[in-house]
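Input sequence (185 aa), recorded before submission:
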Amino acid sequence: MKKKTRYVILGLLRDEAMSGYQIKQSIDTRMSFFWNESYGQLYPELNAMEKEGFIEVVTIDNPTQREKNLYKTTRKGLELFNQWMALENDKDTIRSEALLKFFLADDQNKDAILKHLDNFQQQNKAQLKLYQQFYQQLVSFIDLHNNHKYIIKMLELGIAQQQLYCDWAKNYRNELQRQVQGENK
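Predicted structure, token format:
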């Protein structure tokens, strides 16, 4: 599977110039249920894309703050992005250490799994709340950018997924807790 970092960057920069930090924050907060990028992936790719002419740097000079570099997509970058959008998708993969532990658990791991289920549920509740907030924001500004209606559909999927994870973790935890209590009698 080829790296997709450049397409994430190009897609985010279509509507507005952003700093590397802003790109990373957008990925971490709005895409986390289906995508991630590290700073170690992001900044080398930004440098390579600038050299290749897919993005350009715009420097904002602010007297009260230090100089800020923002990236914006070039025409060449938009062409590359649109070509990629037309390609067939690679096979999707998901990696979750929590789900892996739940899958590999056995009766010797019940206490650890209970702890992991609590953490899993809390993490997903926090993410659910965040997605619901983003959803409300975007719905109120749906016409601001032409991609908001598409982002809203992805947020609906993220909200449903997070709610499913929360409900599943709660039910699984209750079931395991009853088993542990039954064993301790």
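Checked by second reader. Strands lie at 55-60, 68-73.
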